[in-house]
Design brief:
Distance between the termini: 84 Å
Strand content: 15-25%
Radius of gyration: 35 Å
Largest sheet: 11 strands, mixed
GO biological process, one term: proton transmembrane transport
Catalytic activity: Ca(2+)(in) + ATP + H2O = Ca(2+)(out) + ADP + phosphate + H(+)
Family: Belongs to the cation transport ATPase (P-type) (TC 3.A.3) family. Type IIA subfamily.
CATH topology of the largest domain: Calcium-transporting ATPase, transmembrane domain
Keywords: ATP-binding, Calcium, Calcium transport, Cell membrane, Hydrolase, Ion transport, Magnesium, Membrane, Metal-binding, Nucleotide-binding, Phosphoprotein, Translocase, Transmembrane, Transmembrane helix, Transport
Number of helices: 32
Bound molecules: adenosine-5'-triphosphate
CATH architecture of the largest domain: Up-down Bundle
Number of strands: 28
Structural class: alpha+beta
EC number: 7.2.2.10
Shape: elongated
Helix content: 40-55%
Number of domains: 5
Length: 889
Amino acid sequence: MSWHGLRVEQVEQQVNTTIGFGLTEKEAKKRLKQFGKNELSEEKKPSAFKQFIGQFQDFMVLVLLAATAISAVLGEYIDAIAIVAIVIINACLGFIQERRAEKSLEALKKLSAPESLVLRDGQWMKVPSADLVVGDIVKFASGDRIGADVRLIEAKGLYIEESSLTGESLPIEKQTAPLPQDVSLGDRTNMAFMGTLVTKGSGAGIVVATGMNTAMGQIAHLLQSAPTMMTPLQRKLEQLGKILIVIALALTALVVVLGVWQGHELYDMFLAGVSLAVAAIPEGLPAIVTVVLALGVQRMMKRNAIVRKLPAVETLGCASVICSDKTGTMTENQMTVTHVWVNNRLWTVSGTGYEPKGTFLLNGKQEKIDTSLQQLLLFGALCNHAELKKKGKTYMIDGDPTEGALVVAAAKAGWTKDKIANEFTIEHEFPFDSTRKMMTVIVKDRSNRRFIVTKGAPDMLLERCRFLYMNGQAKPLHDQERKTVQQTVNTLASQALRTIAIAYRPLSFAEAINDETKAESDLTFIGLQGMIDPPRKEVKQAIAECKKAGIKTVMITGDHILTAKAIAQQLHMLPPNGKVMDGKTLSQLTVDELEDVVEDVYVFARVSPEHKLKIVQALQKRGHIVAMTGDGVNDAPAIKTANIGIAMGITGTDVSKEAASLVLLDDNFATIKAAIEEGRNIYENIRKFIRYLLASNVGEILVMLFAMILALPLPLVPIQILWVNLVTDGLPAMALGLDPAEENVMKRPPRHPKEGVFARGLGWKIVSRGFLIGMVTLIAFLVVHTRHPENLTYAQTVAFATLVLAQLIHVFDCRSERSVFDRNPFENMYLVLAVLSSLLLLLVVIYYPPLQPIFHTVSLPVTDWLLIIGLSAIPTFLLAGSLFARRRS
Ligand code: ATP
C-alpha cells in the first residue's frame, strides 16, 4: 500500500481510526490478536530436545558411554546401568542450568524492550512497541526509535535518521503532505519507518504497518541476529578450560599407565580413568558462570538496575570512577520555584511540591503581584511543554520537572493552562537542547500580536539579550545591568537553586523566523526564576560508600557551576581540595591537558554532552574504569565509550538506552552503587565456585595418582568418582554462586581489570586445599586398608565418605577470601541445605542395602565416622586455623 500517496484523512479512514482519540483498548487488543505482534520474526531456537541431546556431545562423556557399553558387554550390568544413570542425571542438571540461564537472559531482553507512546481511548500511554497495531496513533520526539511504520500527521522540526533502512546517514527532514505514488523509500518524507531514529524535533503519526509488513520487515532476513556476548571472564575460562582438560587428561593417563604397570586390570583402569577424566574436567564451568551471571543479573534487576550487556556485570566490579548526571540522578528532579527576580526585585514564593497554592513575598511580606512579575510568570508558562495534572488529591507534572515548576509558579499567580490557551497560540517552537541550553516559542495573542519568548540558562541567554525589561519598558542592557543579573544568578545558584532566565522580543505581523539563531537574538531580558531540587536522600550515603570502596564520584551537569557546587557540598562529595570546572574551561583543554588535572576535579558544570566524551577519555587515559550516565541523544557517544555506559530508565531516550550496558529503572545514583556492589559480589561468587570445583578436582585426581604411585588398590571405584563429581558439581557449587556478599565487599579498592582469575592467592588455595583433600582421602583409605586388607570395599567406602565430606566442609571455606571463621555458615541457607542434602545422599548410598552393590559400599560402624570427620576437617581447618591465629596475635 502506498500510504505516502494518501492524504492524512484518507489514511485515517483506511485504517479505521480517529486521530484525536486513537483506537479503543478493546479494538487494539482485537487487532493484535488478529494480526499478531509487531515483531520481526526471529530465527528459530534449538528445541529443548536438541539442547538436551547436546549435553551428551562432550567427547569424554561419549568415551565414558562407550566404556560403559563395553562393561555391559562384559556382563557388568549394574555398573553400566549406574554409570548411564549418573551421566543422564548430569545431563539433566546441565540442561536445567542452560535453560535457566537462557530464560533469565530472555527476560532481560524483554525488560529492555522498546516502548512507544500511543493514544488509546483518548489517553496517551506507553506500551511495548511489540503491542502496536495498525491504526494506532503514536507520537515521538528526539532520541526515540520509531516503533512501526507510520504515516506522519504532525512534524515539528522533525528529522529522522534512516541509515539502517536506506543507508543514507544524514537525517531526513520530515513533513506531512502527500507525495507522488512512485517516490522511493528514502524520499517518503511523510513516513517514519520502524527502527529508524528521531534525531531532532517531534512528530506524530498513524501506524500503517507492523511486524514483518514494515519496510524493515521486508529486509529482516538481511539483518544479522545479535551474537551472544561472552564476558571477558567467560572467555578466559574457556581458554583455561582447554588447558585444564589437557592437564586432567594427562594426569588421568598417568593414573591409568601407572595402574596397569602396577598390575591392575587394563579394563578396570580404563573405566576408572575415563570416569576420573569426566569428573575432573571442569567442562561445566562456563555454563555455571553463565547461570551465576544470569542470577546476578536478576538480583540487580530487583535493585532497579537492568543489565543490557552481560560483560558489564564483570566490569562493574572494576569501576573506579562514576561520572553521574546531577538532575534527577543525584537530585529528586522535583522542582519548586522559590525565588523570582524581576524589575530588580527579588520575590520569594511560598508553597511546596506541585500544588498550585502559594503566595509571593517581598522581604518576607506578602505583596500584590505587579505586572512585571505577571509577565515573567506568564512567559515561563508559555514557553513550556509541561502540564499540571491532578490525580485524586495529588498534583503531578506531565513533562519536564523544570518546566513543571514554571507552570506551577504561574498557576500560583492565576495563569492556568486554560486561561493561557484561551489567550495565546503557539505558532512555532525551537525545542530545548542541552547544548544551546534554551528553548524558544513564537506566540500570537488574540489581537494577532506576535512575539518571541525564550527561556534558558541565564548565562547563555544573557549573551543573546540587548535590552532589559525595567519599569514596564525595555532599556538597553549595559555592563552594569549585566553584572547585576549575574550577581543575582550567583546568589541564587549558591543556594543550590537551579535558575532559568526568561526573555522576549516583539515580532512584526509578517516577520518570518526560520532558524533558532535568528529567533534567539536581540532579546529583552525580563527576569529569573530560581527553583530548588533537593538531593535524593540515599545519595549522600551511596557516595560515601563508593568512596570507601575506592570509587570516585564525579558530578557532570548542564547546570550552573555554583548550583552544582552547592549540591555537591550538600552531598559531601567535594573534598576540601576538590576542584570544580566549567564547560568553557573544558572546551579549551585537549584530552591530554585534561588528563593532567582530571584527578582533582569532582564537579563539571555547564557542560554540553560533547564534553562528556572528553572527560571519559581523559579518565580512561589515567587508567580509570569509568561508569558514565546519560539520557539524551548526544550522550550516546560518551555512554558507548565509557567502560560502563549507564542510561536512565525513566527520562532516558531510546538511543541512550541502546548505547548503554546498564539501565537504571529509577534514574537513581544509589542504584549505580547497588549495581557495583552486586557486580563485585558476582565476580567473587564466580571465584568462589571455581575455587571449590577445581580444589575438588585436584583432590580427586591426586588420591588416585598417589594410590597408583604407591602401588595400592584403587581407592575409589568409577561409580563413586562419578557420584562425587555429580554431588559436588551440582547443588553446593550452585549455592556458592548465590552467596550473599562478604561484608567487606565495598570496603576494598576496585579489582584491577587485568587481574587473572587466580589472583589474590586463589591458585595457591586451590592447589593446597586440593592436595590436602587428596591426602586425607588417601590416609583414610590406607588406615582401613592396612587393618582390613581382605575387605577392599570397606576401605573404599571410608575413602569415598572422607572425600565427599572433606569437599562439603571445604565448600564453607570457599565463601571467604579470608578464612572459614570469618563468616557465619548459616548466612547462606541455600548452601546449608545443599550440603545437608548431599550428606543425606551420601548416607543413603552407604547405608541403604539395595544401593550398596551399585555404589560398592558397606555400612560403616559409627566409630569410623570419627576418623572420617577428623580427617575431612583437616584441609579446611588446618590452614584456616593457622591463618586465623596469626591474624589474631
Ligand atoms: P544533568 O541532568 O546533566 O545534571 P541538567 O539537567 O541540569 O544536568 P540540562 O538539562 O542540560 O542539564 O540543563 C542545563 C541548563 O539549561 C539548566 O541549568 C537550565 O538553566 C536550562 N534548562 C533546563 N531545562 C530547560 C528547559 N526545559 N527550557 C529552558 N531551559 C532549560
